[in-house]
Amino acid sequence: MNGPVISSLLPVVFLIAVGFLAGKRRWIQGAAVSDLSNLVFLLLAPPLLFRSMSTVRIEQLRLEPVAAYFVAAGLIFAATLVWRGFGRTGVVLALANTYSNTVMIGIALVGLAYGPEGMVVLLTLISLHSLVLLTSATVFLELAVAREEALRIGADQGRPGMARTVGRALRNAIIHPVQAPILLGLLFAQTGLAIPEVIDKPLALLGHAFSPVALMLVGITLALTPVGLHWRNALAQALVKNLVHPALVAGLGWLFGLRGLPLTVMVVAAALPIGANVFLFAQRYRTSEELVTASVVVSTVLALFSLSIVMSLVGGF
Q1: Which of 245, 310, 266 is nearest to 99 (CA)?
Q2: DSSP-assigned letters across all residues of the chain
Q3: Which domains can be identified in the chain, with CATH numbers?
Q4: 113 CB-near residues (< 8 Å, 6+ apart)
Q5: Which tens digits make up the pLDDT trace of 114-133?
Q6: CA 39 to chain centroid
Q7: Which residues are registered as beta bridge partners of 100?
Q8: CA pair distance 12, 34, nearest whole angstrom
Q9: How far apart are the C-alpha atoms of 216 and 213, rounded to whole Å?
Q10: Cα–Cα distance for residue pair 108/269, rounded to 1 Å
Q11: Which of 95, 122, 169, 192 is the least buried, fewest Cβ under 10 Å from its Cβ?
Q12: Mean pLDDT lowest for which of 76-85, 95-104, 156-165, 265-274?
């Protein structure tokens, strides 16, 4: 089994296990999970996302290598919505099928396996990954919420117009605690300024806390919910993310004329397990929390084996 894969994934599994232990021993009670989710979502994620985007210059981005990734993600996202139906559950599960753990696992894995040249390709994807997928998911989720509200009040007050519904969804997406720091960070980067050190240090400390706390939160929720009831559906989600997504990226990449390291890195990025942000979206929108929790864990454990297979196969690209 590939050494870099194991060394990158074991810390993730360990942090989830620590959270699981805390939940099982009831060091963290079920009533606190919602507060912890708000801590991660509202306080730790924004500094991390803002700092990640604050040095990204638009003109330096090479969009060709990431096109196959996002086209494949879009196709899987759309297919999931068709299969699951348009609603909060369908959107969250579609995000789970397409959103990779590119930061905590991807950076370490690609850096060890493919060196600085591979990192350039991955960082181009990372600079757009959350912006494209999380913003799109937020818009769809807000539209789904608006649709549910319209159906609930439509009988008495009349349904709001589509333009009003879309406008409200877009507004909520822009001021969302995930999307707002991404957009602000990207805008800040274009000024050419640097974040003052007195501000950057506390932002960095908050951002560094995001991954371990988010992963332990997954473990806590795993311990407090009957995940065993969802293992079949979780395995299906994990197989789509870990195997179908990279296979589709590889096929589209060949059609787009991609070869060599750019295609290899994109396929490996697609094969990464489900990112913890999907769990936070499930928590935020109160849908499929148990299934998403199980899917993140199963996908991460499965990645110990599936990533090794994918990386061996793409070695010939």
Answers
A1: 245
A2: --HHHHHHHHHHHHHHHHHHHHHHTTSS-GGGHHHHHHIIIIIIHHHHHHHHHTT--GGG---HHHHHHHHHHHHHHHHHHHHH-SSHHHHHHHHHTT-B-IIIIIHHHHHHHHHHHHHHHHHHHHHHHHHHHHHHHHHHHHHHHHHHHHHHHHHHH-PPPHHHHHHHHHHHHHTSTTHHHHHHHHHHHHTT----HHHHHHHHHHHHHHHHHHHHHHHHHHHHTTGGGGHHHHHHHHHIIIIIHHHHHHHHHHHTT--HHHHHHHHHHHHSPBPHHHHHHHHHHTSSHHHHHHHHHHHHHHHHHHHHHHHHHHTT-
A3: 3-314 (1.20.1530.20)
A4: 2, 4, 268, 311
A5: 887 888 788 788 878 877 88
A6: 18
A7: 274
A8: 22
A9: 5
A10: 12
A11: 192
A12: 156-165
pLDDT band, very low/low/confident/very high, at 245 (cuts 50, 70, 90): very high
Rounded CA gap, 201 and 198, in Å? 6
Q: Which two tokens stand for residue 27?
A: 């060091």
For the chain, the maximum distance between any two Cα atoms, rounded to a whole number of angstroms, is: 62
- How crowded is residue 79: how many other Cβ atoms within 10 Å of its Cβ? 14
Residue 154 confidence (pLDDT): 58
pLDDT at residue 155, as a whole number: 46
Residue with tokens 């506390």: 202
Our measurement of the distance from residue 257's CA atom to the centroid of its chain's CA atoms, rounded to an integer in Å, reads 27
Phi, psi of 85 (to 5 degrees): 95, 150
**In this structure, what token pair is assigned to residue 102?**
């590119």
What's this model's pTM, rounded to 2 decimal places?
Answer: 0.76
**pLDDT above 60 (res 1):** no
For 139, other C-beta atoms within 10 Å of its C-beta total 19
Query: Can you tell me the distance from the alpha carbon of 3 to that of 304, in angstroms, rounded to the nearest whole number?
Result: 10
Q: Cα–Cα distance between 284 and 142 in angstroms, integer?
A: 11
Which pLDDT score, from 0 to 100, does residue 167 have?
66
